[in-house]
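Figure caption, in words: inputs first, then the predicted bound structure.
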Amino acid sequence: MSDVDDALAVLRAGGLVAIPTETVYGLAADASNPEAVRRIFAVKRRPADHPLIVHLADQADMKNWASTIPVPAAILADACWPGPLTLLVPQAAQVLDVVTGGRSTVGLRVPAHPLTLELLHRFGGGLAAPSANRFGRVSPTTADHVRADLGVDVDFVLDGGPCPIGVESTIVDCTVDPPQVLRPGAIPADEVAALLQRPVDPAAGPSRAPGMLESHYAPRCRVLLATDVAEARWLRDSSPTAEIIDDDDPVHYAQTLFARLRDADARGVDTVIAVLPPAVGLGHAIRDRLTKAAATR
Ligand code: TXA
Ligand code: MG
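Bound structure (threonylcarbamoyladenylate present):
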């Protein structure tokens, strides 16, 4: 039996499987099994009104989950899937309330990871999956992070190696006009706008996307933000035990950010000073996660 065979058996029996994606690891259950989906919320200790993303094998499966496919959603799915983009669309009647927290929309995404795509194709249905961390912690980007957070509460961990992107998907609400970017991610808002050939609203509205409150991306250590290395060094003068996190390469910064915060926590570091990357491209997503991590103390 391969690992994908094992994962498939667990999902078909209503169990929970941690799945690798290109962004972060997800905690997956059969999206059409209410008991299984309810267990995700119990294991994560996540409030029931925080909706889950449904992961699909293929863009063609969208029609099973959406009541209509808005034109922007079709354009973005064509251009970006499989990939780090979640599209909010009006939900089809059969989508379970437990998945969408009773909302009228559903978030859909085709993830770009070979193991999870194989799993999804063989499973045939949708997999509801939030990030595979306990509620309030940073997302896991390795199988070991998942095991450290969830232990025996996850029935199987499909180990697909470290996640190549390292921050969660960009979320675009395609049910409003103009479409709105609710969470910055690997696909920047200006790329979304270019693909749609129109401006998008980059303002993240907290009420529209539960689960994106500041306190939801929190390491244990205190996080201070610096706009450049000189400011970081200046801040360290008054916090000599603090460690500085910085990276000139935004791709590598995103890839390693959550692992570095977890590592600092594991070593009992009390303060991390993070240098904000420039606010371009992937830099927006990194700045968003750092700002949320810093806002919690
Ligand atoms: O990269 C990702 O998106 C990862 C991987 C596993 O796919 N998933 C992820 O899921 O980050 P989660 O649950 O940790 O974050 C999804 C966010 C939550 O803040 C949730 O409230 C929001 O998306 N969301 C999901 N469906 C929604 C909907 N129908 N309306 C509004 N917000 C929604
Ligand atoms: Mg999450």
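Residues 99 and 122 are 21 Å apart (CA to CA).
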